[in-house]
Amino acid sequence: MAWEWSHTEEAYEAVRTQIGQQPREWLEVVWAEWVTAKRVSSDMYSHAEFDNRTYATCLARAKGKTDDVLARCVWWWAEAYRTCTNGGHMAHCCPYGCMGHMLPFSPEEEVA
Asked: Which residues contact 85 (CB under 8 A, 6 or more apart)?
């Protein structure tokens, strides 16, 4: 289960900034996950609906986008979805809450 964001503007800015600092491959993968994701309700995406062929196509499309465009899109989707870990420590930056695609709301916190 995930929580909805309820943080300060500084916390949101910390996540947005960290998204922009992620490696190119991370941005491409997360962007492709968002584009591929199938929303099954207002607050959930389904792994069962994941289509690997569509994902591969989206991943190839991501390579044609700039880092800035990828980062802005990832931030926009993450902010719209507004989910985080229980306790509110890590923002989900992809639709599935993958551990490798979470970022802390505080830049001082360690990423697990």
From this structure: 2, 3, 92, 97, 102
Q: Of the candidates 67, 56, 60, 77, which has an alpha carbon nearest to the alpha carbon of residue 26?
A: 67
What CA–CA distance (Å, rounded) separates 20 from 66?
A: 11
What is the bridge-based pairing of β-strands 39-41 and 44-45?
antiparallel
Burial class (CB in 10 A: 0-12, 13-18, 19+), 20: middle
Contact 67, 27 (CB under 8 A): yes
Quickly tell me which residue has 């995930």 as its tokens. 2
Helix (H) or strand (E) holding 82: none
Amino acid at 103: L
- In angstroms, the CA 43 to CA 26 distance is 23
* Residues 47-70: tens digit of each pLDDT: 666 788 999 999 999 999 999 999
